[in-house]
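User: Structure tokens for this complex, please. No commentary.
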Amino acid sequence: MFTRFTSGLKPLRISVQAIRTFIPTVKASSQTPTVFEPLPSKRNGQSVMKYLHEKLTKKYDPTGKRTALVDQQKGLRSGDIIKVTYLDRTSVVGQIIAIKRSVRNVGTNILLRNKINKLGVEVRIPLYNPKIRNIEVLYKPKKYMPRRKHFYIRNTKYDVGDVEAFLSREKRKQDS
Amino acid sequence: MIYLKSLLNVIDNSGAQVVECIKVLRHGPRNFAKVGDEITVVVKQARPLTAEITGSSANNRVKRRDICRAVVVRTKAPFRRPDGSTIRFDDNACVLVNKNGDPLGTRVSSVVAQELRNSKYTKIATLAPKTF
Amino acid sequence: MLSLGFKRASVARSLEFTRTVAQLTSIHAVPSVKTPVGRVNHSLEASNERKCLLTRPGLLGIKRGMITWFTDSGESYAATVIEIDACEVIQNKTLSTDGYWSVLLGQVDKLKNISENNLKKFEQAGVTPKHHIAEFRIRDGSGLIPVGTELRADYFAVGQQVDIKGVTKGKGFAGPMKRWGFAGLPATHGVSLAHRSHGAMGGNQTPGRVLPGKKMAGRMGGKNCTVFNNQVLYANGDEGILIVKGQIPGPNKSFVKIRDALKLYGKSLLRIKHEKEGGVVASSS
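Assistant:
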């Protein structure tokens, strides 16, 4: 129906009426303008944000492990204790108090809380950061606190304690 | 976000316990101090002097109403690292320093932010039991 | 012109008085010289020389939204995704025909509801009719691009700086606190129904009127806005995706103009002339 104008090829002169029948003002005359065919659609016609999201998740999470971690049903929950190890062998341990899931974006992050020397520290870690080597689940409680975001536990009797000490206590309990 | 009148805990053995910010140094008039920034403080609450304390730490001890310089080492307001993570502590804290940037005390008792390692206050980071 | 035959020395020496004929040169005898017309600063040529311009046109794109972008070294930035969809050259404007050099670009193919007049223009260019047309002025003819060429996202190099122009989000009729950042009036101390209004407008007797340009409540947003020196993080021609660091004006799906950073790569003809001559030109940052 349409042809693309390329050098050496003469554009096919077609009646514009064929595609623009809904415009009654155009008179079908010998001088109807040629309408050139649109350029081939990019990304197989997929929307940019969807395409980019799929590409980036594949890049930063080829195995799908990280995405599974923040799955709404089977993934992590506020109250779990995790350990994030970086490529330079440093690591952060803490209890999850919130997971921010972003839509069509690799901006998903996990908010961890811990107590060091009786002082509360919090770190929000981007899940898909290429600097992260591994995310390990250390502890899952039997009973979870209500709500998905645990901001309310800060400085109350439900607050997280020293997570490392808690874990070693739990381990001793299991061993005995 | 440390402004004029912000109260901070002091985590060294200089004798001060609570200080109040009276000036954020080297910043614009509407700006605030972050981790690693120097501020001028006035000591609001200090540990009483006892005979047991001797040596260099005794000379550097500060009293209530003393005005000194301090470096912010922890903030309650979250701050961002280049890798996209944000850090937040449960209190605002500082370490008293002299005009050359050396700490007045000889010990830092609690955790400090990692940003101090790459700043000119490396000594505070090495004194601290843990950086986060 | 009038030369009388006075001779002072002779007067002093002897009281002789000689009178010669007064000589007047006729105006018509003087050969006329055409004074060169002074350079008019308001002329198109002069303004063309003064204008700080780029050597090549930019691109047209569609804002698609913001994402988190990680570099290979693990740094993260907030970034904006721009789609480059069928951005083609429609027309070249030249100095001889239009008085200045520029390239007309169009983006997003549009097959419905185009007037026949416009259809003819697109036919001339040999491109599909477009949704959005914009013009980029360039410094000289060397930057013209053949009509009908498709410009892709990889037109820009990763790491270079670009300026992006768009229309800001319309905020409607906004008060002075939102529109201009005024402090408003106190919450108490007798203030009634005017907590978010501006204060005084100016003097009572002098000047006795509100000066033009006074910041007041009114329509906010919906205006052209350019962000300067945004770094290109990613550019892929096949995918038609351009990602820049930071934020750009306007809502998602809005049309934007992207060009090389004018403050870094732009130069005026006058400046180039001065540099060639080796003249002292105040170096711009």
